[in-house]
Amino acid sequence: MDIRSGDREFPNGDFYSGEVKGLLPNGKGKYVWSDGTIYEGDWDQGKISGKGKLFWSSGAKYEGDFSGGYLHGYGTMTSPDDSIYSGTWRMNVRHGLGRKEYCNSDLYDGSWKEGLQDGRGSYSWTNGNRYIGSWKKGKMCERGVMRWANGDLYDGFWLNGFRHGSGVYKFADGCLYYGTWSRGLKDGKGVFYPAGSKQPSLKKWCRSLEYDDTGKFVLSRSASVNVEELRSSNTVSRSLSVETSAGEMAKHSGRISDRYTDDIWRSCDPPRDFTCHVPLSKSARFSGSGQSEGQDKNRIVYEREYMQGVLIRETIMSSVDRSHKIKPPLRPKEVRARSLLTFLRGEHNYYLMLNLQLGIRYTVGKITPVPRREVRASDFGKNARTKMFFPRDGSNFTPPHKSIDFSWKDYCPMVFRNLREMFKLDAAEYMMSICGDDGLTEISSPGKSGSIFYLSHDDRFVIKTLKKSELQVLLRMLPKYYEHVGYHENTLITKFFGVHRITLKWGKKVRFVVMGNMFCTELKIHRRYDLKGSSQGRFTEKTKIQEKTTLKDLDLAYEFHMDKLLREALFKQIYLDCSFLESLNIIDYSLLLGLHFRAPGQLNDILEPPNAMSDQESVSSVDVGLTQELSIPPKGLLLVTHEPNSVNTAPGPHIRGSTLRAFSVGEQEVDLILPGTARLRVQLGVNMPAQAHHKLVEDKEESATIELFEVYDVVVYMGIIDILQEYNTKKKVEHTCKSLQYDPMTISVTEPSIYSKRFVNFLHKVFPEER
């Protein structure tokens, strides 16, 4: 059919002038919508495709590539406020490499994903501050460097726009601090090097992010947008083009302009979404004990410990102490000898993780489309198994993969499918959390079982290797477990989401269970305890204690005082869960306790007030919610009436229960406010506020440090774990009684209640009732 030129006016007021093929615009043409929107450029079978210009009545304009009626390819968008984006687009959304100049002269240059900064990029503020590093969903995340106009520089990890994790802060006057941060506040131990002291070299640390130790950025070519290179290398897919009739074009012509709404230029317009962080004040460097005049300043450094930005301990040490040598910011992994699965090291361990991800993706993808039904007795039986062989080259049922050949076995798939739904987990999110491109992280085992633990990339799920005996216990208890968690949504017992087995090509069998991570929280867990209610061997050597070490009963030096109704709800559920475990003859379980400490309110008196930021006034569009190192609220915790729209009510991997009620708020459902940090929903075992009363014990070995306070505000997380050890023989019972200081003559297999009574009595001491 020949292409010809022509003009056409539509009943709704739209007008087209240009080449047509049949009844459809095809080739060069101009379309004017009744609302004033104008497009000039290429058409393909009635769709805007190719090169063109689009002008909105609001004053915005776009020039670049189109495909199938969408902004797709390379193009430049000028918004009504004169901000300019030049880069790649995908279906009307910024996606790929691009540069955005904001109306206030801020500049972002880097990677975009679905309209937000995501990947490698740099952001420069008009006040002279600059960040270069990783972004995720429009916020600074993972590794990055912030350099302030005053010369201060931070190089380390970020999370949601806050300094979070290990990092180095270098002051303009030469001081240096190496330590850890939590949501923008110093939190944990670190080392402070005064100006003039002998400082460790930062070359290795800095080189890993491409800037030198003088603070000069070396932005790699791949991290900067080359406009000509993008334009020349752009290959736009035309597969989006959909043929439409002339009648349809006339009928829906108004919708074509609607597709290019203000959202295109507003979707990532405000630099106010980015936290323009404040450099540290002088008190952040010198709070605490001053330097002794009689000491050599060049040899003195300070070991410090912070809690939520407040200095609580400081010890003078020599700068030549090599135990505090600064290392590149890699997340360390503890390595310890394992009695089980010692062959799973290096390459084998990598294959195992790949196999696990492939198998879970297959299992969830196969069972999810099956209509939901109530479980039957046969769903728990020996025949309730799914088996599949995964050859490296793939098969009619499995995809090709880069691992080794393996066989996969899935236990009780319908039961665990229903459990995941009962725990309100979305199947797609579950699969992406474990099987996504970010992979799994191996973590060290806190116990003596020798099991290997893996953590999903978003910290939601823990995957643990099982012994054959543990698998058998889990399968035997599964019918009663299913019933118990169905009746008691507030149960503290570990959530199980799936049980699987991998058989490697040389015959080795590895069994796994997927569990919820009860420490998956936006708050930092400062202390972890595994409590059994025993004193026999239940302590940790001080030389082995690290930041994430799980401590034991005798290491616990706190009593926790809770709201009356919160405590009642806690012990009501503990009694129910212990009775359930008694019925299964399981007595060696533990309470896993996690504590998030808030800075003591009394420390506020010694802090200088936050400095007013003069440079902030010059950037009116930047959010005022800045992160201050020393801005600690006068109250650590506050209970308020629950507001569903003000908190995240999505179920977590550890808990799905109801919102708790507090006596102090008129027996209403409550939320927990952490001023300056978050508003959280209070549930059993999650986000529970308490006061930790420290049992002071004089320690001569730590005479150089001072414990400043006796009472702390804490947020408590807890759950009952280690429930797969079944003691059903006299020999096992006697061994357990000995380790727990019981008399074997007073206990039998039919009397597991002795353990639960001892366990609950111990918890009554840990969480005493108010008198």
TrEMBL record:
Q: Does the keyword Transferase apply?
A: yes
A Pfam family that the UniProt record links to this protein:
MORN
Q: Which UniProt keywords apply?
A: ATP-binding, Kinase, Nucleotide-binding, Repeat, Transferase
What SUPFAM superfamilies does this protein map onto? Histone H3 K4-specific methyltransferase SET7/9 N-terminal domain, SAICAR synthase-like
Which gene is this protein's source? LOC104755320
Q: Recite the lineage of the species.
A: Eukaryota, Viridiplantae, Streptophyta, Embryophyta, Tracheophyta
Q: Which SMART domains match?
A: MORN, PIPKc
Q: Superkingdom of the source?
A: Eukaryota
Please list the reactions this protein catalyses.
a 1,2-diacyl-sn-glycero-3-phospho-(1D-myo-inositol 4-phosphate) + ATP = a 1,2-diacyl-sn-glycero-3-phospho-(1D-myo-inositol-4,5-bisphosphate) + ADP + H(+)
Report the InterPro entries cross-referenced here. MORN (IPR003409), PIno-4-P-5_kinase_pln (IPR017163), PInositol-4-P-4/5-kinase_C_sf (IPR027483), PInositol-4-P-4/5-kinase_core (IPR002498), PInositol-4-P-5-kinase_N (IPR027484), PInositol-4/5-P-5/4-kinase (IPR023610)
Q: What is its EC number?
A: 2.7.1.68
Instruction: Give the source species.
Output: Camelina sativa (False flax)
In this chain the PIPK domain maps to: 346-767
Q: What name is this protein filed under?
A: Phosphatidylinositol 4-phosphate 5-kinase
Q: Does the keyword Transferase apply?
A: yes
